Amino acid sequence: MGVAQCSSWRFLTAGLLTAATLAGCANYAPAPLSEPANSVLAATDLRARSVGPARPSNIDLAAPLTPRTLGLIAVVASPELKAARAQARVADAQLFNAGLLPDPNFNLTFDKLLSGPDTANGLSAQIVYDLMAFRDRGLVRAAARATRAQARDDVAWREWQTAGQARLLATRIAALEASAALQARVHDETSAALGRALAAAARGDARADDITARRLVEVDAADRAAQGERDLVAARHDLNRLLGLAPESRLKIVPDRVLDLSLDANALFLRARVGRLDLKALEAGYLSQEAVVRKAVWDAFPTLQLTVARARDTAANQTIGPAVSFTPPLWNRNAGGVALARATREQLRAEYAARLFATRAEIAGLVSGLSADRRRRDDLAAQVGPWSRMAAKAAAAAEAGDISHAAAEAVRQGAADRQLALMALDQSVAEQSVGLEIAVGGSLDDLAGTGRAP
User: Fold this and answer.
1) Is the model's pLDDT at 255 over the cut of 70?
2) pTM for the full model?
């Protein structure tokens, strides 16, 4: 075997060994699905949940917690948010991948001489590289950066919504606990009044229609108390699910102070348009699609591919030379890719406009609802005090025999109804205040100067 042939064989062997070595650079390790699932299901204590170094270990879960505190805990403890953060890390990997240039393509061939006058075996080696990677690298990285920004803003918006949902549920639970306690007391009082009426009827001192009316009142009070308890249990279950706690967990909650601000819907919408993270995410997604449109237009131009080949034929003749291949834009011209990219961009534009419209309508509706509920609450609050005093005087008069127990019960029921209605309005105002903060994308404390009517 000649020196040139030995050199070619060494070249071929070295190429194969290099390819095998490069193929072994990546490694694989299994990641069983059962491990994170078992971790989430087993951790019923908030201190067992964390995201990175953040861990709510400095919060005394046995002490009463405010809705704002529970909102912060929900951001750390929610299993859904952990999955969203893991999904956002995919965008980081995509950006890293967008910054990498493609590897060249090596082609090695060997032709064994079977017969003929020649004495050598045929060998050839080619290095092929796609030059379009250099042209498109900037656009691909720009699109990947915008996609990463969109993913991060999406996660941040979900965190804000999750914190708001936890606050909303905690506010509802605090209101329902107070309402359920009052409804249970009203039911006990109506049951006691029915018992007294039945005892009087047994003595012949009460009419049948009076007994029927008291039974209806007692049944209505029992239904309202049962419904209040069901609502409370459902709200607690929703909060435990959001926090990733066991269904039977029960947290002690104290309500937040509700700010009495005069809010301007237009000013709040302008703040939301600038600061809402979901709108920022849509803007970043639109920028990413802009880069996709530009790349689609560039793909309509000829694509270039460079090949450098080294070969030896069976006559031991050796050659080396470059080759350039390209695709001329005669008929296709990437018209389909351009049309798809532009249609997607238009879709994102329409989605952004629709989200703006929905945001403005949501904020306006919440501001109007808050204003109406506050007016009704002020009117009702002015009635609760006098009715409570009337109920106390009527009870004392009934004990003294000045009026009938039925009249005193009617006054007491009227006072209780107004107190329950006031609690319902307080709950509506508190929940709509939290909903307004969620819709605007900022707390009402920060918006006091922006959202206050001029």
Assistant:
1) yes
2) 0.76
